[in-house]
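During the second year of the project, the team shifted from modelling isolated chains to modelling whole assemblies. The rationale, set out in the original proposal, was that interfaces cannot be judged from single-chain predictions alone. As a representative example for this report, we include one of the complexes processed in the last quarter. Its constituent sequences, exactly as entered into the pipeline, are reproduced here:
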Amino acid sequence: MKQIVQSIRDAFSMAIEAIQDNRLRSILTLFGMIVGVFAIIAVMTAIRTLETSINSGLNIFGSNVIYIQKSPAIQMGDHASRRKYWRRPNITYDMGEELKSRMVSAEWVSIGDDRGGIVVKAGKYKTNPNVVVSGVDEFGLEVSNGSLSAGRNIIHEDVAYGRRVVLIGKTVLNKVFPYSDPIDKKILINGISYRVVGIIEPKGELFGNDQDNVVIIPITSYLQYFSHSHTSLGISVKAPSAEDFDAVKEEASDQMRIVRALQPNEENNFEMITNDSLIETFGAFTAGIKMFAFAVSIIALIVAGIGIMNIMLVSVTERIKEIGIRKAIGATRNNILFQFLLEAVFLSLLGGIIGVILGVLAGNGISLIMTVKPVVPMDWVFIGLGVCSAIGVIFGIYPAYKAASLDPIESLRFE
Amino acid sequence: MTLIKVKDFYKIYQMGLTEVRALNGVTMEIQENEYLAIMGQSGSGKSTLMNLIGCLDTPTSGDYYLDGVNVALMSDDELAMIRNKQIGFVFQTFNLLPKSSALRNVELPLIYSGIYSKEERMKMALIAIEKVGLGDRMHHKPNELSGGQRQRVAIARALVNNPAIILADEPTGNLDSKTGVEIMSLFDELHKIGHTIILVTHEDEIAKHAHRTIHLVDGKISKDENIK
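Output from the structure prediction step:
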């Protein structure tokens, strides 16, 4: 065992010597490997970062909530398929009320909608026209996984009477009430006067979006002032527990079909979204990118492998004399084969390691932008380095074999 | 004691339609601690004979007993082992690895003999390099050494594994006459301490150092004489 370790160490030090002796050529060869490994590691790291941010804590909906809306959350596909969603009838407040009265297994059913591009004013202070106004009922905060840091929530009576009361997010608060307590103060939302009743606990950013740049008002008031002909509402159904979740989801689907007056042979003209389905949709989306990055990397690595073979063939030709000397003083075929093979593997592995380091750094650049924790995709690091070693062996074996097969007398005579 | 026994050596090359008999039936014996010179004009077959004695090549037919073992039938890798352990080569053009230090060059045969301890190898290489009087230059690379010094490194490399035979092919051919004399006296000394030395040369001056000369003409031994 010790002998094997020692002989590998000897071959290894010979490989390093040879690479040092041909520094420029080795560096050029390395580039190919670096690019190939860099591409896959950078993409995989970036995707892993996104996945982590999606999966860890940043749940968009509250727990056990099923969200029903007209179109899918992430739409992929061509114009025609998007028009299909767009042509579906809107979900109205009445439909929401009807579903609410039909559902028996749900803890509650909530109706809401939001739109962006809103200006909020209070006295001389004014926000940019980028605030999101959200119309909800008394369950609205729970739907969006939010909570209050001060004041009270929107209550049933606010919704029933269409009261002009508002909950404001931290970003809006800082803009329009920089120095004073906002509770019971008046603000203007797109020019319409509302009374502040509560402050929403900050949530931070998601995909670079500020989730605290919002104001929340009763859905009835929202429909009065902020809806338009295209407005299609979202309905949230809360299951009492995780065990009931699937049953509630099924009941919601059945009841919604009745509300939408669908025939048994017609497909749903609404979408049901859950935290899990969002993660799943995102997964399907990233799988495509992963496949593409993988394909690009494999091509790059094969090209790099051919480069390594080329370099090793040149190296063998240049070192015929050296091979002759080594054979004359007792190197066997296997000694020479192993030496050249190890050189090829070492070159490709070195390129792979540099590629991994650069790839992880570049891939985590995105985590800085999105303020999530950096990750190292260890599985892909090992896959990348494994592929590099394999390429070193595959493309190094022929030159090494050629070197090992040289005739010692002719090699010694070679000038 | 008989170290080398060569019997009916033939080496025949097919060059297109013509057949070239580089060795045309050579039979000879070499005793332990002999100091032998193989002489002949170029084309006489002396290089071919040296390659065969040095186990770099195998004969077309004939037997070669080295230390009682017939090596004519051995595989490439077995021959490599024989070259490593039993034979030390000294070439006209030195044939050192240009980018490795003198010490590393001397160490190289030990790596291939399976001496896995680096310290052990260093100890043996140091002894060999001291023997040729280059202890103070062992960390120099070949291009930092003079021709005579390079040949001393090559001799140290040939000695390091304590081989039965030292085989020197025109060892002074690339050296000036004064350095050549120094190198030859080194061979004289190695002979004195018990090594078997075979010189291959076409120069009478060099052959004079040997105790026995074999002349080759057209692939055959024409003269075999003891001169001392």
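Residues 39 and 204 of chain B are 8 Å apart (CA to CA). Chain B has one domain: 32-58+75-226.
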